[in-house]
Amino acid sequence: MDRELYPLLMFLGLIPLLAAGVPISFSLAAIAIIFSYLLWGPGALNILLSATWGTMNNFVIIAVPLFIFMAYVLQKTNVVEDLYDTFYKWSGGLRGGLAIATILVGAVLGAVSGVVAAGVIGLGLIGLPQMLKHRYNRRMALGSVLGGGTLGQLIPPSTNMVLYGAVSGVSIGGLFAGGISAGLLLASLYISYVIIRGLINPRFSPALPPENRATWKEKLVSTKNVFFPLLLVIIVLGSILFGVASPTEAAAFGATGALFIGFVKRRLNLRIVYSSCYETLSVTAMVGWMMIGASAFGSVFAGLGGNAMVANIAMNMPGGENMVFVVSAIFVFLLGMFLEPGAVIFLAVPIIAPILANMGFDPLWVGLAFNVLLQSAYLSPPFGFSLFYLKGCTTRDIDIVEIYKASLPFLLLQAVCITIIFMFPQIVLWLPRTLLGM
Hints:
- The chain is mainly α.
- It has one domain.
- The protein has helices spanning 6-19, 24-40, 45-56, 63-76, 79-91, 97-112, 116-133, 138-149, 159-168, 172-200, 216-222, 224-241, 247-264, 270-303, 306-315, 320-336, 341-358, 363-377, 385-391, 400-423, 426-436.
- Helix 17 runs antiparallel to helix 18.
- The radius of gyration is 22 Å and the shape is globular.
- The chain starts with 5 loop residues before the first helix and ends with a helix.
């Protein structure tokens, strides 16, 4: 068989394993082991062990469980509920105000946790019933929870950005700084959509009736709920962006800060600490196995000339470097429709990022665009994680098809965001260059 077909066969070999329900991490590792053993013999397994050790022996990766732990503690100590209460009281009088509050809370949660499950489930349990109670269009209500809840993977601290930086070598601080601009841009697009739809059809997202609106005294008192989360954002992001701490050290500050907030609010107990540690261990183990499987797969794929083959195809593609970027974006989006975003990072970044960098694209800009696409993966049918997180916390009369349909306008806004970033890269590069001189 022609040796150039082996890299293609590796990808084709994943299809039956994934269709059979084998976890992506074990599917990647199995394909790597089978191909390396059959082509190079038993000694090739040492290469896989070396690749795995090189990937896992990375100090930056320690930030992942710390950020996950921080998110779980904040979720279990009802910080989500406090934030929603504050934004609910301030924006309830606006047309579409509850949906806007949902998106804003999602943005703040992204800045204090970086874990999508905490945002989508929290907003689904707290914000969605309020919007449905006040007769919001169901798809608008569902879509705003999906859009706001997934901002946590774009607005730093983001676990996806930590993983992307660890795999690609791009500055995590730079990704965090650019992620602020990208996240605010996307949140602004979401809010603009809510306002415009409300103006076109007032029944689509009505304002709260006067008797249900908070008084000025209630609004001012509720602002105390925002103090500690914002302080945590300043500590975590500020320490990274101003060079006081590395991402791993800042994550440790964040985890400690989450415990402190729970203690001050008198909501922290041993049960919450234990369950947060247990769930953090479960998610971290999943990420670790995914890194091992993807590292093994990537090593064999590169050894068979797969990276060189893809680079050669890209260099000869009609339309130049812009077409290469468009095809790469479509490839990443399609992968995201079926795979967990972490798996997409480990599988696609080592192949795509070097090619785009060699074609003259700024590696930091590529990383930021890539993370917007990964955020889209959480919303994209049929297997977007946020879709199933939301289904798990809704009533039985809301089926998965309706949630799929609710996600479509927000996926379109994601495409608009990517287009804006592509046409005006300075939008996301200005802050990293200003703060970090990149």
